[in-house]
Amino acid sequence: MLKRNPKQDVDDEFGYAADALGMDPDDMRRLGHKVVDLVVDRLMRKNAEPAIITGEPAALMAALGGLLPESPLDADESLELLAEVALAYQQHGDHPRYFARVPGPSSFAAVLGEWMGTGFNTISASWGGGSGPATVELVVIEWLRQMIGMPQGTEGVLLSGGSIANVTAFLAARAELGRGVSYYTDQTHSSLHRDLVAMGCIDEHMHKMPSDDTYRMSIETLRQAVAADKAAGLRPVMVIATAGTTNTGAADPLQEIADLCERENMWFHVDAAYGGPAAITAQGRRYLRGMERADSIVLDPHKWLFQPYDLGICMVTRPGALEKCYAMSPEYLKDVQATTGAVNFGNRSLELTRRSRALKLWMSLRTYGAERFRAAVQRGNELAEFAERQIRNHPETWDLVTPAQIGVVTFAFRDWRPGEHAAATKTVTDSGFACVSSTMLRDRSVLRLCTINPLTTEADIVETIERLAQARPS
Ligand SMILES: *Cc1c(COP(=O)(O)O)cnc(C)c1O
Q: DSSP code of 12?
């Protein structure tokens, strides 16, 4: 039997102050409770606040900066300053009318997990130094694997987000297959191109292809690109598919890409940073079929799995590929190396000293249960479908550009003129009522709603679309 809360048999009273810099326990408790109140107070009133507030550099610097504090300042006052200024002037991605880019609807049980990890100063680098948190990380990766339907034996590592998780997979792919050409499209998230550049890819190893009329990778274009590169003496090594683009929610033809990768002996990477969580619902699973055949896949639970920032996951289905790329065993880590069956997470990415990002996901999955997650994600799918119907019902005002696809819908003013979409989003966003954004689909400007917050109501969507229509410059 595992012993809970193992303690050494020594006298508890050593006379240490409770923290390294001398705060006493009464202050810790009082200030800690105050933090809880500040956080819950904001959660209760967030609907009544603007969805985004951006400050002026000089005013913010004046409020938050000043001389280096040589002696203590009042901690109550500092917490209030954080709540009222530093943390007020930002996008409130958990606001029910925050529809811009990708919202961040967090959940409180996840926040509690995050606080526990920080409070216990948790480290998840080696088994010897962090066997408890490493186990929690193994558990949540396994739970998530089951929820999205990846094959048994899939391994993973938790990271800060999609940008880092994707390059973590790319480097593992390169360690397996060597250098060569990677294929992606004009709809691939721009951070992935940056990842490839950062890892030293030369121009001819980054083959960006035009997407098709529905903003998906064309399997025909891919076939031709691979054939042409081979004829030119290059070595195709990886296809980077997107399962839910940030722009439109489009999913590349994952089955066909998987087939081609199998035939050509290429690594099949799926960037599902935005869309992957949709696969926990039946509708999303159908939409993203083929994702489970990936060699590596990336998800961002800080987008659509109700986790506070930051949390990305890199999963790899080739056993041992992460360790093969990242394992190191220097002399000063010898006494914390793994015993059989244990994992050193410091050997699965470029991060060695790392906090446990697993605790929040573990807390929230246990507290709410997977069923509640599925219902909340499905609600996001349905809200986008509702928004699509609203657009279709007003053809005198709107053109639908791309239909509701896992939480994203794009549309345009009928006979739009350049600058109109940006002007309308600015008017509505500046009013504080909602935060909306426009984007470019190749050379076409569109308005876009991302509806993944389950707190959003149908009335929120009706009113936001109505206000966008009224904000059209005349
Ligand atoms: C958000 C996103 C990324 C980048 O992830 P970060 O967490 O912002 O680093 C990559 N790909 C897709 C599809 C995304 O939506």
A: S
The CA distance from 174 to 264, in Å, is 16
| Cα 164 to ligand 1 centroid, rounded to whole Å | 9
What's residue 234's pLDDT?
98
| Ligand 1 and 185: CB distance under 6 A | no
Interval 374-421: pLDDT, tens: 999 999 999 999 999 999 999 999 999 999 999 999 999 999 999 999
C-alpha–C-alpha distance, residues 89 and 19, integer Å: 31
Residue whose C-alpha is closest to residue 192's, from 246, 261, 141, 236: 246
Mutate to test the pocket of ligand 1, among 189, 215, 349, 437 (most ligand atoms within 8 A of CB): 189
Other C-beta atoms lying within 10 Å of the C-beta of residue 426: 14
- Whole-number CA gyration radius for the chain: 24
Tallying the residues shown for the chain, one arrives at 474
273 pocket-lining for ligand 1 (C-beta < 6 Å): yes
Quick one: 388 exposed, middle or buried, by C-beta within 10 A (0-12, 13-18, 19+)? buried
All CATH 3.40.640.10 domain ranges in the chain, comma separated: 122-367
Task: Give the pLDDT of residue 340.
Answer: 66
Please provide the CATH number assigned to the domain covering 46-53+90-104+369-474.
3.90.1150.170
Task: Check pocket membership of 301 for ligand 1, CB cut-off 6 A.
Answer: no
Query: What is the position in ligand 1's atom list of the atom closest to the CA of 242?
Result: 13
CA of residue 390 relative to chain centroid, distance: 28
In tens, the pLDDT along 123-140 reads 999 999 999 999 999 999
pLDDT band at 18 (very low <50, low <70, confident <90, very high): confident
Q: How far is the CA of 188 from the centre of ligand 1 (A)?
A: 10
Burial of 153 (0-12, 13-18, 19+ CB in 10 A): exposed
Burial class of residue 183 (count of CB atoms within 10 Å of its CB; 0-12, 13-18, 19+): buried
Start and end residues for every CATH 3.90.1150.170 domain found in the chain = 46-53+90-104+369-474
- 326: tokens are 């990242």
The first and second tokens of residue 273, run together, are 């940073």
- At the topology level, CATH places domain 122-367 in Aspartate Aminotransferase; domain 2 (3.40.640)
List the residue whose alpha carbon is closest to atom 6 of ligand 1. Answer: 162
